[in-house]
Amino acid sequence: QDNSFEQFIINYCNEKLQQIFIELTLKEEQEEYIREGIEWTHIEYFNNAIICDLIENNQTGILAMLDEECLRPGTVTDETFLEKLNQVCATHQHFESRMSKCSRFLNDTSLPHSCFRIQHYAGKVMYQVEGFVDKNNDLLYRDLSQAMWKASHSLIKALFPEGNPAKINLKRPPTAGSQFKASVATLMKNLQTKNPNYIRCIKPNDKKAAHVFTEALVCHQIRYLGLLENVRVRRAGYAFRQPYEPCLERYKMLCRQTWPRWRGAARAGVEVLFNELEIPEEEFSFGRSKIFIRNPRTLFKLEDLRKQRLEDLATLIEKIYRGWKCRTRFLLMKKSQIVIASWYRRYA
Hints:
This protein has helices at residues 5-36, 49-56, 62-71, 78-88, 132-136, 142-149, 154-159, 176-192, 215-224, 227-236, 244-251, 266-276, 296-347; strands at residues 95-96, 115-120, 123-128, 240-243, 284-286, 290-293. By secondary structure, the protein is mostly helical.
């Protein structure tokens, strides 16, 4: 119920993960249609970059202002930090505070004077400002690190490498918020170089009971995980896409003209294949390098036809093999009969 600095940085990390999810899935999905020259209806989706900027901006971000409060001389309290937020973030559409002199929240009794509220991607979260400055300023001072590094115990010495006199840094140790922000930036940079696959887990109820689904809880998680936007983009676009070469290789046995081998461009082979199968034109589109299939049912139909065709081919191979085997046995028996008959006649 009482969210403090710890929950704030956790939610900041969640916002960054949601941002990269949007960039790598929804945004990439729509950009691929543009690259492939596919006509489709653009779907608007919420990009939470504005929320990330509210937290991490180097000049006006909440973390930057928190660090500034921790480093400035004079009396520094959580109240002075909140006052600074109210001055800088008063007009931000995702920041709410009763002390921000904003008429929208002056009479909001659900928002105490010692709190501020951020409208995150998943919903509004209220933070208790008490403890923000102390927790962010939780520094391990240089003399403590040096004392630990001089310990005779090897493990303790290894845990405080910054205490090594040869590596002394006269700069002030970074704040907890700065360290967390740097760690998140490193994580995002690492994820950008990968091709991640997302597994979204839905908790059906709070009691961990089987066959029980709490509708409100499930709907909240669906909105929180961004699944609604993902489904809208998928429905408006194409559920399946594949380069022409592997598509032709997989389904070429469904058409006499492409089986067993197609002499020509892969795209032309796919066009002949889909015309032969009489698939409605609204169910697919030809991109520059890929075939796009709109409805999963069309793909299921292709898979069913392929499965049936493979069974037919297996039956054909088995029939030919059995015929060859029986004919070979017949010819062998016929030859043996002639040999036996010739020897019998000679004997008779």
